[in-house]
Specification:
The complex is a heterodimer.
Chain A lengths: L1 H15 L2 H26 L5 E7 L14 E5 L4 H7 L7 E5 L10 E4 L6 H22 L4 H7 L8 E3 L5 E3 L2 H35 L3 H5 L4 H40 L1 H8 L3 H13 L1 H15 L2 H29 L3 H27 L4 H6 L6 H8 L6 H29 L9 H8 L4
Parallel strand pairs in A: 1-2, 1-3
Antiparallel strand pairs in A: 3-4, 5-6
Chain B lengths: L2 E10 L2 E11 L4 E5 L6 H8 L7 E6 L2 E2 L8 E4 L11 H11 L4 H14 L15 H13 L5 E5 L7 H16 L3 E6 L2 H7 L2 E6 L2 E7 H7 L4 E7 L8 E7 L2 E6 L5 H11 L1 E7 L4 H10 L4
Parallel strand pairs in B: 3-8, 3-9, 6-7, 7-8
Antiparallel strand pairs in B: 1-2, 1-4, 4-5, 9-10, 11-13, 11-14, 12-13
Helix pairs in contact in B: 2-3
Classes of the chains: A alpha/beta, B alpha/beta.
Chain lengths: 441, 296
């Protein structure tokens, strides 16, 4: 037992000391944070203010109804002829020409610019003019501004689950789907990454020929389990680092964005309606969405159960797959040679990942049920189902089968491993591996 | 006896690796385990190291049936040996020593002594990758003996060693023997056997074909041949037979029942004798003879 601990310790420490471990531990949360922090930053940062000259023939527009925090409007009096002769002044992005009959003629808006205008700018200006024109038309038809605004309702839905016990729950299925998807994906990725690291570790020991020294000190099974457990702990360490760092980075990012005085100043300097718009925009932006979803999910899922099951399915899913990876590593002498065998492991992992996409859409379907019961696919699929709620008996059956599956597969793997590590110069084939299982040592 | 091997047999799927092996490895001696490649030496060594087990037969270590607690009393330098390339030398040796049951502090202390002895103090923090092959072999040797095993098993220890390191290793092996360590020395290169071994066993095709004290075996294989340097003209005489003769150097075989003095007297009468010495068979000769004529 003491020796297994030594092996775990070595495997753990040598990986943790590698630069690549820390790079991926820090980079991944940074990328996660950036994905939602950058859009907010882009939305609220100061932009260069563009100058627009307005030639208003209709007399409907003034500084009050043409307002945009990125645009400065200057009212001028020029004829179209003058504009064409004199050209566009250097500091002006565009000249907006509004025709006299703009209320009747929807093509009565024209722009002049030195360079082609950006589509976004053009649409922005169109929207501003359009909104004023609509208002005018409505008030001419006898509908005032307040009535108009009151008609602009937006419908938002809420889905409620009534469980067998009769308790009412806000299911917030969008958030749960995201949580399930993330959990399933992390599980899939880490089993694949750390499983193949187990294989490469075994190949390293075999090809560097240190293996014979090692197994004259410890039993092959101890060596295999020590390696698998040590790397599993590295995986758990990485999860924890990811979780803690993502949380801290996002806190920092929110702080920077939220307390940016410029952002606040810009919002406050705007007219009331516009402030409303910006605040709505921010409320709809990705970051606050994520926060809302996280809040919803935290309130509506059984977090201890999710955490426990995640660790359980990670641990046993990883143990099961990595013991196969270890057996494969023992049978070959180079990673290239291992390729013909790794299919056996990667195919079920990839299949379970694809099944998980279906499970995510329909967590209560028959397919999802079987996918979350069968040991080779259950880790990824059950973890996807759990946030949606799974009957207790299904969970227990799935966990029990996974443990049995792990014991069976690791027994077979260990039998192949103890023979494989001593075999050199013999090209392993499936037939050969089957024979090794029955060798007496 | 440090090791008694009784009736040990081992077979794999389709071949017999060891057939009915009986050997006694003496305490505090160097025991040569000889034999051509594929004879079964490594299979036997793996059984002693408990990497594999015998199909039948027993092995007694210091009078007790071999069991996992003995692992810590055995040091094993395999023929195919390696180290973790990315790991630092010191860390690696500590790890291997701890796997052999040493405490971390004791292992550190012992390793430091060896580092001073081999004059490699500044290697502790180096990754193995940075060492030359010869340097790595020193590290491997230290890892084999740092836990002061009672029984040391060296499988082709000199393969790949340059002459300087080979000498260093030889001296260390002899020092260890003086301190009472029993050593099994497995090789197919006979010249090292002559210098180092006290006893030998020759394994061929899974069986022990010859075993015993080195000198006794040599005497047993003496063929009453002599080497002669002379001046004059030489023909076979009544007491000897001429085997080869070229340029004043001849080899002769004494006839049965005569002594070397009688031969010499006859020779003195015929030629001027410059040198006369018995040809003692080398282990190479014995090895080849036994392996190619199994009936002897």
């Amino acid at each position: 037992m003491n020796k297994i601990l030594l092996i775990i310790q070595r495997e753990y420490l040598t990986r943790i000391q590698k630069k690549s471990f820390w790079i991926s531990s820090i980079l991944t949360p940074l990328i996660f944070t950036a994905i939602y922090a950058i859009p907010i930053w882009l939305a609220t940062r100061d932009k260069e203010v563009k100058k627009i000259e307005v030639v208003d023939q209709s007399g409907l527009f003034n500084q009050e109804n043409l307002k945009d925090r990125e645009l400065e409007f200057v009212f001028v009096n020029k004829s179209q002829n003058q504009i064409q002769k004199a050209g566009i002044p250097e500091d002006v992005s565009a000249i907006m020409w509004i025709s006299k009959d703009i209320l009747q003629n929807n093509t009565g808006l024209q722009f002049y610019s030195q360079k082609p205008m950006s589509l976004i700018l053009q649409e922005n200006l169109e929207d501003l003019v359009q909104s004023k024109v609509r208002q005018e038309l409505l008030s001419k038809a006898g509908i005032n501004k307040t009535i108009y605004e009151n008609t602009q309702v937006k419908i938002k839905s809420k889905s409620v689950v009534i469980s067998e016990e009769g308790a009412e729950k806000d299911s917030s299925s969008g958030g749960i789907m995201i949580l399930s998807g993330i959990l399933g994906f992390i599980l899939y990725l880490t089993v694949l990454i750390y499983g193949s690291q187990v294989m490469n570790g075994v190949i390293e020991e075999k090809s560097s020929r240190i293996i014979e020294v090692l197994i004259s000190s410890v039993k092959p099974f101890q060596l295999m389990m020590g390696k698998i457990l040590g790397l599993g702990l590295v995986g758990i360490t990485q999860f924890l680092l990811w979780a803690v760092l993502t949380f801290s980075f996002s806190q920092i990012a929110t702080q920077i964005n939220g307390t940016n005085p410029k952002t606040q100043a810009v919002i406050q300097s705007m007219p009331k309606e516009k402030q409303q718009i910006v605040q709505n925009e921010m409320a709809n932006s990705d970051s606050l969405d994520v926060m809302k979803v996280v809040d919803n999910v935290l309130n509506n899922t059984n977090i201890p159960l999710v955490l426990f099951s995640f660790l359980f399915y990670y641990l046993f899913g990883y143990l099961l797959y990595s013991s196969i990876f270890a057996a494969i590593g023992s049978a070959v002498e180079s990673p290239a040679e291992a390729q013909q065998f790794t299919m056996v492991v990667t195919i079920p992992i990839i299949i379970s990942f694809f099944l998980a996409q279906i499970t995510l859409q329909e967590p209560d379907s028959t397919l999802a049920f079987w996918a979350s019961i069968f040991p080779l696919t259950s880790p990824v699929n059950m973890i996807v189902r759990i946030p949606f709620g799974v009957p207790v008996w299904e969970l227990i059956l799935s966990m029990a089968l996974l443990i049995i599956g792990f014991l069976g597969i690791s027994w077979i793997s260990a039998r192949i491993y103890r023979v494989g590590i001593l075999m050199y110069g013999k090209k392993a084939s499936w037939k050969e591996l089957r024979k090794w299982m029955f060798y007496k040592i | 006896m440090i090791l008694k091997i009784k009736d040990v047999s081992k077979s794999y799927a389709n071949h017999t690796a060891l057939k009915n092996i009986n050997l006694e490895i003496p305490q505090g001696k160097i025991f040569g385990l000889l034999g051509p490649n594929g004879a079964g030496k490594t299979s036997l060594i793996r059984i002693i190291n408990q990497i594999t087990g015998p199909d039948i037969g027993t092995i007694l270590f210091d009078g007790v049936e071999l069991n996992p607690s003995h692992i810590e009393q055995i040091g094993y330098l395999p023929e195919e040996r390696g180290l973790y390339k990315k790991m630092k030398v010191g860390e690696q040796l500590l790890y291997l020593a701890q796997l052999k049951g040493m405490s971390k502090s004791h292992a550190t202390e012992q390793l430091k002594k060896w580092f001073i002895k081999f004059d490699i103090k500044d290697w502790w923090e180096k990754p193995v990758d940075d060492l030359s092959k010869g340097m790595q072999q020193k590290i491997q040797f230290i890892s084999t003996i740092v836990h002061e095993p009672k029984l040391l098993i060296l499988d082709e220890p000199f393969s790949g060693f340059d002459p300087i390191n080979a000498n260093l290793l030889k001296d260390e092996i002899l020092t260890l023997k003086e301190k009472g360590t029993s050593i099994i020395f497995s090789t197919h290169r006979m010249e090292s056997v002559e210098e180092l071994c006290d006893e030998i066993a020759l394994i061929n095709k899974s069986e022990v074909v010859l075993s015993g004290n080195k000198n006794e075996i040599r005497n047993q294989f003496k063929q009453h041949k002599y080497k002669l340097e002379y001046k004059g003209e030489l023909k076979s005489g009544s007491s000897f037979e001429l085997l080869s003769n070229f340029n004043g150097i001849a080899s002769i075989r004494m006839n049965q029942g005569v002594s070397s003095n009688q031969v010499l007297q006859e020779l003195i009468g015929k030629v001027e004798v410059l040198a006369f010495a018995e040809i003692i068979p080398s282990f190479n000769d014995i090895f080849i003879e036994v392996v190619s004529n199994p009936k002897n």
